[in-house]
Amino acid sequence: MSTDLHTNSTAPASGENPFGEEASATALLRFATAGSVDDGKSTLVGRLLHDSKSVLADQLEAVERVSLGRGQETPDLALLTDGLRAEREQGITIDVAYRYFATPRRRFILADTPGHVQYTRNMVTGASTAELAVVLVDARNGVVEQTRRHAAVAALLRVPHVVLAVNKMDLVDYAEPVFAAIAEEFTAYAASLGVTDVVAVPISALAGDNVVEPSAHMDWYGGPTLLEHLETVPVGSDPSQEPVRFPVQYVIRPQNADFPDYRGYAGQLASGVLRKGDAVTVLPSGHTTTVVGIDALGRETDVAWAPQSVTVRLAEDIDVSRGDLIAGGRIPVPTKDVVATVCHLHERPLRIGDKVLLKHTTRTVRALVKEIGYRIDIDSLEQRSGADGLSVNDIGHVTLRTSEPLSLDDYTDNRRTGSFLLIDPADGTTLTAGMAGEAFDTVAVDAADEEDWV
C-alpha cells in the first residue's frame, strides 16, 4: 500500500483546461471491483478487458491454450485476471491487482480487490483511491452478507459512485423481476449508508450481456452497458469549488548566481485552484501571506489546479518547511488530538497505549493511541464498544495524541487531506489507514452485550 492513501498521477499538463470537453473525453477513471466468491468477478474483469479489446494477442492465445487443455471449448476469461499462482489454484482473488486499459473515450485504472472477509484491508486499499466501485452480485443469490460489507466499505471510504452489477442473469432466464428485486434491496441499503449514486446493470459476464455490448436477451433493460457507464460517469470534482490544500514536499533554494534570492515550495496541489495574488495561510504556524509566483514544468504560470505538481513562491520570507500545509478557503484548525475512523491493516493488533508514527500528506509525526472507542461491525453497522484493541481487518474509531499539531480536514470534506496512515516506528511497516472524523451513522451496542468481542 502506498504511504499516501490518495496518490494521484493524473496531473494535467501545464495550460491544459481540466474542465473543458477535451480534457473530460480522455479523463482517467479509477474504479474498484468487489464481489463474493463465485460471483464471477474475475470473469467480469476478463470480459471487460477482452470485449474492449484491451488484451494482447499473446495473452489471449495463452488463455485459449490453457482453457482448451482443461477441456473448455471457449476461453476462460477469468484466467486473464487470476495472475498469482495462489489465486489460480484457489480460484479466488487474494490480492489487489491493478489493471490499466483505455477506450477512445476514457482511460481506466481498475483495482481488482478480493471479496473474502479476511481481505477487507485489501478492498480498503483498492477502494481508497477509487471514484467508482462495482459491487458484483450473483442473480441467483441476491444481496448477501458480503454484498452489504462491500457497500459499507465503499460508503466508509466515500467512493462517490457505485455500480451494482447483477451477474449471471443467464442463469435466471434473464428475468426482469429478479433483477428489479435485487436492485431495489441494494439501493435501499446503500441509501441507508449515505450512498445515493447507485446504478444497477443486469449482466452476464460469461455470455457478455451488457458488459461492453448490449444484451440481445434483456430488451426490458434500457440503461447503459457497464462500459458505457464507466465511460460517461462524471470524473473528479470541480477544483474551483474546493479549498486550496498544498502540502509542501520540498523547499527549493538554489542560492546560485542565476537565482540568488529564489525560495520556492514544491509539491502536489491536493485540492482547489491556486492563483497568483491569492491570500494563503501556512499551517501549522498560522502565518498569512500572498502567492507571488507559481512555477510549473519549468515556466511561470498564473494559476494551478489539483492535482498539478508545482512550485509556489510567497511574498514574505517566512519559515516554511516540508510537511507544512499552504491553505486557502476554509482553514483547518491544527490539533494534536486526532479523532478518526480507521481500518487496521496489519496482523499485529493496534492497542491503546501504542506509540506509532502518523503520516499525513508530507508530514510525519509521533503519535500515541489514547483511546479505541469502538469497533464497527461492518455487517450490521453496529458500534461494538469496550474494545482495547483492533485486529487485522477491523474497522474502528480511535483517538490519537500527536507530538505536533496536524492540519487535517474531515475525510467527508476532503479524501486527500482527511486521510493518514499509522506506521510502526521500529521497522516502517504500515499498520493502519485512517480517515479523520466520524464514520457513517452506526448503531451503538453496549459492551455488556458483547460476550464474544475481544
What does this structure look like?
The chain has about 450 residues and is an alpha+beta fold. Helix content is about 15%, strand content about 35%. The protein has eight helices and 26 strands. The strands form five sheets. Strands 7, 8, 9, 11, 12, 13, 15 and 16 form an eight-stranded antiparallel sheet that branches. A six-stranded mixed sheet has the order 2-3-1-4-5-6, sandwiched between helices. Strands 17-23-20-19-24-25 form a six-stranded antiparallel β-barrel. A hairpin with a 6-residue loop joins strand 24 and strand 25 (about 430-435). It starts with 20 loop residues before the first helix and ends in a 9-residue tail after the last strand.
